[in-house]
Amino acid sequence: MEPPLVPQKKVKKLKQKKSPGTPFIVKDIEPDQSDRDKTSDSQRGGGSGDHEGSDECESVDEGFSLRLSDSYDSSGTLKLDSVSGESIRAAGVLDSREEGRKVFQWMIAPHSEASFFRDYWEKKPLYLKRNTPDYYKNLFSTSILDKILHEEKIHYTKNLDVTSYSEGKRQTHNLVGQAHPSVVWDYYNNGCSLRLLNPQTFHRPVWKLLYNLQEHFNSFCGANVYLTPPGTQGFAPHWDDIEAFLLQLEGRKHWKVYKPRSEEEELPEFSSENLSQDEIGEPVLDITLEAGDLLYFPRGYIHQAVTDEDVHSIHITVSTYQRNSWGQYLQKLLPRAVDLAMAEDLEFRKGLPLDHLRVMGVVNSDMETPGRSAFLSKVKELMERLLLYAPFDAAADQFGANLMHDALPPLLGPEDKMCSVHSGGERWCKKKQKVINRVELDPDTYIRLIRGNVIRMVAEEDGVKIFHCLENTREYHQEDPQFFEMSHEHAPAVEALIHTYPKYITVETLPVEGDDEKMTVARGLWERGLVVAAHPLENRDDD
């Protein structure tokens, strides 16, 4: 479900009420929406679908702000007293965004992040020869794939593809239903490649890797695992619609990578069909990946690979930035800008010239007439004027809300659980036959968001929606978008938690009017598992 895009103009300004605000949690929303289109093969279980925005625009206050004025200085800097986790000896001190950066740096080492984005990202391939076979060994292996086949309910097409490529023809050999291990391994022994489409669903280290990268890229990160028998090729030459990081886990594989064939095929929006060998030209990279090596190539780069005759290959492809371009942003922004401009500006509602069909169109495209020049000049003027009505932030919020639906849920550690509703708090005592360990937040309790990018706040006319990924599963889009509503009066508290992360703030310093309202907001976020305390809450049992 798309959050509405809200205009930035016209309506009365928000006033902070001195009386108690509306309850923090108004209701859970059950969105009425059809399933999104399946993702492409290159990122199934690892990529976001194409999202179309809502056709409706809702209005909010022109001066709408989620901030309480006395919580920010003249430069817009938050004045709340926030403290680092280390300074109060908090159980949780890590910054999920910084952890994501470190994981990405580990993945591409010894290249620095700065040099990678300057020299390679969306520009050209990177081949990293490490001579360290064990570098990625803890991520995944052939033995783990075998264990998953035996212990999990793996289905063809949804979780597993069986493929082959021979004499210029790519074939998929998927059966219907569950993929039984003996049948799958028989296909492998007969020269078929195996593609596990969503390893993060079944294997914790892959989930951890992808979630950390997701925090860094602010874009969904997915993965596929490819196992290829010796002396075979599983896929035809093709390009993908994702930024691809290939991490070689075992064995060897010979790769050929080719430039996009034209400027129109650079950084494509969608993956290609299977290509023939005579369509792809000469490779710009011809290398052999061995265990511990990395290969990166941008979307649009054609690639194919074959294993050596004497050894199998297994690698994991980490993917991101599927349909995450300026063009996709403008597809959300401009239709809403036109709607707002037509509602606000007379120039956009004036009729077209009487002669517009006589001067415009393909048959008139080579003509230079006063009427045609005037028409094009007017269009240019309106396009420039359109920017005045463009809801830039609301379009970004659509991307953020969509990410909350696409995203993997955070992998919580013991320090997160014992200081949050996920483990701390009330529980049933069999011996005493009653509920024990009653805990409560206090005004001086230090709290912060459980992860840096776990929520996205979207403003609407009658309140705000808080989208989050906490209740997603590791299976892509298995759940509907998760969000709840809150009042404008309570929203500054969420904004404060977003801007002070990874530091902690006390409940009593939340920028909401009234002590009861501060506690209402904090309890609501606590009960949903979205905030974590600096320390386990004190047991309030009477005995």
From TrEMBL:
Per its UniProt entry, which superkingdom is the organism in?
Eukaryota
Q: Where is the composition biased (Basic residues)?
A: 9-18
State the protein's name.
Bifunctional lysine-specific demethylase and histidyl-hydroxylase
* UniProt keyword annotations, A-Z: Chromatin regulator, Dioxygenase, Iron, Metal-binding, Nucleus, Oxidoreductase, Repressor, Transcription, Transcription regulation
The catalytic activity of this protein is classed by the Enzyme Commission as 1.14.11.27
Cofactor(s) recorded for this entry are:
Fe(2+)
Which reaction(s) does the protein catalyse, per the Swiss-Prot or TrEMBL entry?
N(6),N(6)-dimethyl-L-lysyl(36)-[histone H3] + 2 2-oxoglutarate + 2 O2 = L-lysyl(36)-[histone H3] + 2 formaldehyde + 2 succinate + 2 CO2
Q: Enumerate the subcellular locations listed in this protein's record, separating them with semicolons.
A: Nucleus
Q: What top-tier enzyme class does this entry carry? A: oxidoreductase
The processes (GO biological process) annotated in the record are:
response to ethanol
Whose protein is this, by species? Scylla paramamosain (Mud crab)
* All residue ranges annotated as the JmjC domain in the record: 192-337
Residue ranges annotated as compositionally biased, kind Basic and acidic residues, are 27-41
Q: Which Pfam families match?
A: JmjC_2, WHD_RIOX1
Report the leader peptide range.
none
The record describes how the cofactor is bound as: Binds 1 Fe(2+) ion per subunit.
